[in-house]
Amino acid sequence: MFTQAIFAGLATVLISVSPALAGSTCPEVYIEAVNNTGDVIKIIDLDYAISGHGVTSDTIRNSDRQPGQIYSTERNLPHAMARNTQVVVKYRLRAGGAYFDKWSGIRTARSAYQECGPGTNYRISIE
Q: CA dist 77 to 42, 54, 68, 69, 83, Å?
């Protein structure tokens, strides 16, 4: 009897705490994007598609990556805790050879959706 009351009380506490966590900041999220295009790319933007919230965006400056090179960053994602979240990398390909600083139109590479929690890792292959 006493044990059942404790478990019932614990379940009530867990149910009431979980919704409060949903949508708060998801801390220390690690994002890794690998340039597998075979060309130089310029990463220009990171978008975060957060279920139940929408899309937020971070502009990235001066982030050219050689073929095979990794772009990595750690972020705190507002409104993402305990929500399915996808990271979208927006980038451009070098379009004029090594001697011209011309870039393609904007392209995107996406991670899989996964529930965000402290220390979640998002890996993206840019192809």
A: 23, 12, 27, 24, 11
Token digits of residue 15: 């149910």
CB-neighbour burial class of residue 50 (10 A; exposed 0-12, middle 13-18, buried 19+): buried
Q: Regarding beta strands 64-65 and 54-59, do their DSSP bridges make them parallel or antiparallel, or are they unpaired? A: unpaired
Per residue in 6-54, pLDDT tens?
444 444 333 333 555 667 999 999 999 999 999 999 999 999 999 999 9
Contact yes or no for 121/104 (Cβ under 8 A): no
| Locus of tokens 């149910």 | 15
The DSSP output letter for 116 is B
Domains and CATH numbers, the chain: 24-126 (2.60.40)
Burial of 111 (0-12, 13-18, 19+ CB in 10 A): buried
